[in-house]
């Protein structure tokens, strides 16, 4: 039977990806691995203590419905949902907060409606796809700046025609592929110089792991407390903050924090909020109390930072690993460069054979020549496990220097 043109076209596209080494597929990994891949930095997703704590709170809250029954503007809102948002606003030191179903829909919703077609959006070249899609949908004037390059950003700011229109600078607090921090102090300084400039920041990989209470990189830098009336406060400049719960918080969902006016605007214009079924009541309880648990998890955060330092020291000491292979990062996300999609995929397969779960980040997700093994460290990893990881990295680098040994 002759196959339809659509099927042939789709198969041709898939075959092209196979040849390029960029084909993706869902896999069910069999066996037991040491986890160096998940975003569960603090181990919350598998914490028996946290599960028991949230289960007890669900019983106290006496949640009746399985589902929310509709979108927030129809039947899906509740007094408890708004109570959770108020508690999140307090946790993140904001005037107001609005829940979204995921970090992707939060970024998409904010960036598709906040900038107008006459505004400018200047964005770091390494921001997440969800932010790029939102910016594209906004139809705003837009231009990328080189990653974490504030000199290049200021050059672009100086060239934006002076007007009453806003300039939105879009960044991530911790970058998901490189693990490095945004220069947030310098961004605030630039926005005080260019007074119609604002920052929209995605704290997906900062929340939970940074700051005294886990409220993110901005808390760690003291920018959530700045309310100096003599100049533009950092809270005004950091006009919109997106916090995702699917990483260190170990659950699902996201919240956008900002002024009351900002949140009211999103309720009216953010399509990914308006036209979707709201989060179920049981999950609202989970969101509420995982933040209470996070406040008390400073020892876990300290443990994670110790392991980050331990890993980097061990890699630097290991003669088999080229010094330039390790990306600069003080976060739980560590990158080890291995040039080429085929080479990095082979290296990851070899590490899995040694019981280590890591993932290859290949082009075009990153630039060609910047392919890498992405290593996520966790508070529940041990020094012995990290020693195994470093030895495996040394093995693959030695093997890659002798191509015939891979046959």
UniProtKB/TrEMBL annotation:
Its cofactor is pyridoxal 5'-phosphate. Keywords: Aminotransferase, Pyridoxal phosphate, Transferase. Residues 33-393 form the Aminotransferase class I/classII large domain. Signal peptide: none annotated. It comes from the Eukaryota. Pfam families: Aminotran_1_2. GO terms for molecular function: pyridoxal phosphate binding; transaminase activity. InterPro entries: Aminotransferase_I/II_large (IPR004839), AON_synthase_class-II (IPR050087), PyrdxlP-dep_Trfase (IPR015424), PyrdxlP-dep_Trfase_major (IPR015421), PyrdxlP-dep_Trfase_small (IPR015422). Belongs to the class-II pyridoxal-phosphate-dependent aminotransferase family. BioF subfamily. This is Aminotransferase putative. It comes from Albugo laibachii Nc14. The gene is AlNc14C28G2683.
